[in-house]
Amino acid sequence: MSTVKDEADDGPLDVHGEEGGAGEKPLVEDESDQAQEDGFPTLNLGHSNGIEEEDNSIAAGLEGFRGNGRQAQDSGSEDSVQIQATHPDLGRPSSADESVSIPDDTPSVHGSLVSSPRRGDRQLSYGQSPTPSLRPFDRRFQARVSPSPFGSPRASSPAFLNAHSRQSSANHALPDVGDAETPQAPWEVVRWTKLRKMTGEAFSEVGKRKFGRPTCIAIAASIALGTSKGIILVFDYNQNLKSIIGPGTKAVESGSVTSISISADHSTIASGHASGSIFTWEVVRSAKPFLHIPPVDRSKTPDIDGHTLDAAILHIGFLGMRHTALTSADDKGMAFSHLASRGMGMVARSVKSTRILGRYPDKTSTAIRQKKPSSVLSFSPLPLGNAEHGTDPMGLVAMLTPFLLVIVSTTPIAQTQFKASRPKEVAAHGAMSAALAWFPSVKLKMTNAATSEASSRVKLIYCWSNILTVLEIAEVEPSANGGKEEPPSLQFKPRSRWKAEEAIVGVQWLGRSVLAVLTITQQLIILEDPLMVLTDSSDLIQKHIYHADLFSPQLNQLVDQLEDEEVAAMHGVVADAFYMSFRAYKGRLFLLGYNELTFGTLSNWADRLLALMEEGSYIGAIQLATSYHSGESNKVAVGLPEDDDLRHRLVEEKLTEMISASLEYAFGQKKEAVGRRTNRQLLEELAASCIKACISIKDMDFLFEDVYAWYSDADVEDIFLETLEPYIDDDAITIIPPTVIKDLVGHYTSRGLNKRLEEMICHLDSQTMDIDQITTLCKKNRLYDALLYVWNQALSDYTTVLSDLLGLAEQQYNSQSDVDPSARETELTSASKVFPYLSYILTGRIYPTGKDMSDDSSTLAKAEIYQFFFSGNSKEVQEIPRSPKPGSNASFPNLRKILDFDALSFLSMLNEAFEDNFLNGPKERIADKTPGQLTDEQKFGLSVNRQWVVSILLEVMTPPNYESDDIIYLDMFIARSLPKFPQFILLPGHVLHRVLVGLCQYPNDDVADDCQLSVEYLLSMYQPPDLALLIPLIAKARFYRVLKSIYKAEKQYAELLKTCFEDYNNPDAIFQCISDCARPGAGLSDRQINDVRNVIVDHAYDLVATDVTKAASTIDDFAPDLHGIMLDTLDEDDAVQYKYLQMVLEPPTPKTGTDRPILSQRVFIERYVRLLCNYNVSHISEYIDHLKTGDLRLEEVLPSLESSGAIDAAVVLLAREGKVREGIDRLTQHLITLQSALFGLLDAANHSPDAANTTETGRDLISSIQKFARVGVWLCQRQVKVVRHTKPSLSRARSARTMNDALSEDEELWLDLIDAVVAVTKNVTEVLERHERQAEANGDDSEQLTSDPAPLDSSSIKTDLRTIVQETFTALLTSTSAPHGQNAPRTDVSFLRILRAFLNRASLSSPSLSNLRAVLGAIFSAYSYEESLLSLANQLLDKDLFVHVTEADTLRRRGWRPLGQLCEVCSQRVWGPGAGGYIWEAWQQGNEERAIRPRNHSGNTASRSSSRDGHSKGKAVTRRDEDSAIIEPDRGLSREATQEGNKGAIIIFSCRHMFHRVCLENTQDREIIAGDEGQAKRTSGSDLLCPLCT
């Protein structure tokens, strides 16, 4: 296969004007501006379009930079090819469509920083014991110098690259053009050049009159312009007009050129016209068309596929390399593939068109849903790349409609390969737009590491509105059974998606990984694939890009429909088309404007750096170049190769030159202003940029020999050194020359920054340091962290500095009291570093950075440490002084020193070191690896294990040398280590017994919890033989958790419960213990249960005092008979008794099946009711309602109820005991009491200073009256029910009573209640009216009355009281007027009798009934109003019910659902898919007739009902018992229509069989001929029967 080369015939494109002026240069220069296809674009620090402008004001150092930049292009153009050539290569072209380019094929490998946890970062979690304590063995030592953080302060990037910049690669949104504060980059994103010569030919007034206005453009080896007069202008790359195609042919009669395309070999041009015609032209023989595909007149030739008349060809393209294979799409939403045959002699070429998308507009649709309008918004066939791919012979075509993306293969047959619907993320109410572009398969310089492919995959970029998606097409391996002729199988995978802020109208590939996106506001966005990162953006509004409204005439109706529907893809406007004027070819963009033609290229990396340097932003240039070198910034979009080595070689040299030029500019010309604050800030930024750049290029020699030299010569080295600090702390710089270290040390020590200096030293490579200088410095300034680090790393000595620290601790411990306390504190702080140091080394970490040591170094370091402490004379001495002097014969002197200093910290460190596997056994691997190189001390250290360490500690830490305060920590250490390492530590029983006893005899309470935890550890694997004898000792130590474990294991539940009572820190354990004993499966014996009960009785008060609710619940479950004892202990605390009984008698979860004695329950209930009177009066009635008869004694609780005011509860209890009369008397008496209280409130209302409190009290009194009135109603109604069930039922004659008979007992109850309620209402009303009259009589105080409202609303009170009376009378009336059945008993209550007795009593008690008349009149008028409302509501309900029933019956009578879709006689489809469009039309016609039918149906209801026994007339549906049918009358169908398949009306019977009426009549006609006269009679009219069911 040949390489991809796009060549032209007539030389390079000349950008000179018509006059050949020198102001412009060619688009492509032979020397420096070669189009890159197989490699990255050329690199030129000058302008690559040939425009070279020198700025003499720039520093002299920049001249060499520019000159060297011009030479950089040669290093990256070894695989480049020029656009111009002399002969076209017809072997395999590179591009088949102007919408796709063949850019570089370098692999798109986007590097990223590896973000992984550091080895030294450890996060350890440890178990927690049940109670808080000191936890001396749970802590982990940490050094002050922590591991390096992931990030450190860095100099900010240039302002134009910040997050708010238009060029920010992290910003996916469109830039805010109106943001004045957003700094702009000094370079142009795209360098545009106007093609003046071509513009003069095509856009001049002469050109427009002669050729027409340009309407579309195609770019390949030539530039073709289509015009509005149907003419095509072809230019070469020198802007010479090579050919004028179309004049004198049918093309000029076919309307304007609406689409244009150039073939793959650049020899043929295809054009689509507004009339629907398609022409192809050979460029060298353009006098007549090579091929003409005219539109099709569907009215004359309906069987021929093709574009219809006046359907504008919006899209056109060649398929593959063939000149005779085309695809096209029109504005009606139809697309076709065209294949022309070869013509021979006089035989013209024939063209076969195949429809691949859309439907003809004149085709009648029989579907129920009408077809929505559509159009092809974007269209492109897949061009050929320079690498073979399975898609090459398939002729793929991608099309975008308003609804779908469709990819169709045209060879060998048209077949849909992929479909995708519009994304849900499409913005609502936006612009309807679409765009797509292919990128073919190209060869890769390096095999893709991820896919192991030597060529890239085919990619399709497509956009709907503001959503852009990248679709990858890959070949699927053919199956083993597939034949050679089997077409390839493709896999379509949407890979990336990007969302813009506005609709996208155009998209083009500028490279294999670079996308150009044009938005509806003519913003150009550059995206980098596959990360979909916005790298650049530019405003093209001044370019006046040509666009046309091509789709709105077809799609406006669709937009209106979408506005009405609830769909996520709603749009408000159809965007104009830009695809015909926005093209890309070989990394260049071509724009067809309204008045000019321009092209542009992306500014490359060298152009951008030069622009920054020329502007004077040398710091920004260095930072940008550093980002290019490291790959942090976009690479492909600026012309850098993706291969790291190639990119580094290109950028490194220029980066060092920029740094040198910047330093010379900053220091060489500004020495006099270096010390100023503004310049100091600039120097700090310059230093940070230079340091970061040198780190990126890994050139520390240049950093310290050149960059630092400039700062040192200018006496501002402090700026450089302080800027260097964060990079050292980040481990980005680990090697510094000794001279710089000397300056670094001098600067930081002079400013007192020793701690920061120490941190930096700990991050540097010790192999490059001056050891004497560093050690002297560290000792002088007490930088022991740095001293330990340097000594360990440089000399691999881990004990020398350790000895110094222990000596320092010993000196401070033995020092006299006259030592300065601050100095003593400083020395002790330094000495305490020994413990984190040992912790790090013995766990394999470098101190103090925390990084992991190598295995060999770690092993030898541990061996040296263990030998340092645990070797020596192990013989016992009688008495060793606590702090032996140097030279004494005490065994293990170093161990004794550190134990004397801080035994707790040392043992805590050993607890951490014991977790390391170094102590598991001998290290044969190290010994074998380094035979003869290990010293005796190292060999001894390698043999140390946990057993040896513990044995030495037991030997050394003995009294009287060490006090119990220190020995207790050894006991804790052994007790904790033994269960964790039982296979490595073996101790005799007497030693463990001594440890256990020592833990129980702890010296102070601060370590009590830790000792108990240690005992738990120890007893988990050690079982002492005399445990029973140790229990008193454990109990004395208050190790309750240990005691509980022992008693639980021994099943001593009584002792266990006693221990729980003694353990005040865990009170919940008491209830858990009792619950465990009460569990059915606990298996306690009677004796054990009695012992537990005795413990509970002995600690009854403690149990209740712990938690009264839990105690009540627990005792109720375990021993309910102990409730009395519990309550007796609380005899003096009523509040606790109340909570206790509340939990027992009213638990949150009710209990069932209790067997406690009734007598004890009654006592508790009575006590609880009495307590409720004190603590919750409002709950008494609710509680009593749930009690049963006999649950309490009335005489025991009645006094408490009355004293607390719970009269309603007392009345309920009296009624329950049968004392109804006494209850009603108490109720009426209480109502009188409430009346008196209300009187007093009314009298004092006008004089009360607290009006709000008076109002609230009045409302409470009215509410109480209402409540007690309702209690009285309940009492009377209950008595009526009791009388009804107890008295025998009498006949109506015997039960009738006269008005003069005496009232019965239940009637007397009603009478008393009504009398009391009415009396209260009447009396209060009189008082209110009297107050009102008095207020009116005081005319002098009218102003005060109006300004000070009365605290009580008299009208509201009267209304509430009358409402109470009305409710009482309503209840009485309900009880007396209830309906009675024939056998139902009749009550003796009579409303009239009670009312008469009430009036008689009222007349005796009061001579005047005026007030009573007013009250009763308002009540009975309310009854009359309610009666009218009920009557009206009943009428409305009856009418509504009749309407709904009528509608339901009408819907039910409309028809039945048939069993199938076929006629039972002819077996033809009657309804459903394929039945024909006439059914739908008939159904619509029927609906219209029913809608306009005269509304005389309701007037004929009587006539229809009168003829219900006969047959109905007209269209009414006739139903019979089983064979009724629904008949649709014939709508004038002729027999010819019936013969064509439309058999007219359909009949459906109630049995759900369905027939054509014609078929049913023919069947019954045959039955008539057979002599069935009865059937003949029944078939007349609409009286039809189902033949299958009769």
Would you write up a description of this structure?
- It comes from Stereocaulon virgatum.
- A 4-stranded antiparallel beta sheet has the order 1-30-29-28.
- Among the domains are: 192-361 and 370-394, Lipocalin; 430-479 and 486-601, no CATH class; 1030-1082 and 1090-1154, no CATH class; 1249-1289 and 1297-1433, no CATH class; 1453-1494 and 1512-1590, no CATH class.
- It contains 51 helices and 33 strands.
- The N terminus is likely disordered.
Describe the structure using short key phrases.
disordered N terminus, Lipocalin, 1590 residues, single chain, 43% helix, four-stranded antiparallel beta sheet
List the helices and strands and how they pair.
Blueprint: H1 61-72, E1 190-194, H2 196-203, H3 205-211, E2 214-219, E3 223-227, E4 232-235, E5 241-245, E6 257-262, E7 268-273, E8 278-282, E9 291-293, E10 313-318, E11 325-330, E12 335-340, E13 351-357, E14 378-381, E15 396-400, E16 404-409, E17 415-421, E18 430-432, E19 434-439, E20 458-464, E21 467-476, E22 489-499, E23 504-511, E24 514-519, E25 523-528, E26 533-539, H4 552-564, E27 571-574, E28 582-585, E29 588-592, E30 597-602, H5 605-615, H6 618-630, H7 644-668, H8 677-697, H9 700-713, H10 717-729, H11 738-750, H12 754-761, H13 771-780, H14 784-795, H15 800-814, H16 821-831, H17 834-842, H18 855-870, H19 893-913, H20 924-929, H21 936-943, H22 946-956, H23 964-980, H24 989-1000, H25 1008-1019, H26 1027-1036, H27 1040-1050, H28 1053-1062, H29 1068-1078, H30 1086-1098, H31 1100-1106, H32 1108-1118, H33 1123-1129, H34 1134-1145, H35 1158-1175, H36 1180-1185, H37 1194-1204, H38 1207-1216, H39 1220-1245, H40 1251-1286, H41 1292-1295, H42 1305-1337, H43 1342-1347, H44 1354-1376, H45 1391-1405, H46 1410-1452, H47 1477-1492, H48 1501-1506, E31 1525-1527, H49 1535-1539, ...
Parallel strand pairs: 18-27
Antiparallel strand pairs: 1-30, 2-3, 3-4, 4-5, 6-7, 7-8, 8-9, 10-11, 11-12, 12-13, 14-15, 15-16, 16-17, 19-20, 20-21, 21-22, 23-24, 24-25, 25-26, 28-29, 29-30, 31-32, 32-33
Helix pairs in contact: 1-7, 2-3, 5-6, 6-7, 6-8, 7-8, 7-9, 8-9, 8-10, 9-10, 13-14, 15-16, 15-19, 17-19, 18-21, 19-23, 23-24, 23-25, 24-25, 27-28, 28-29, 28-30, 29-32, 31-32, 32-34, 34-35, 35-37, 37-38, 38-39, 38-40, 39-40, 39-42, 40-42, 40-44, 42-44, 42-45, 44-46
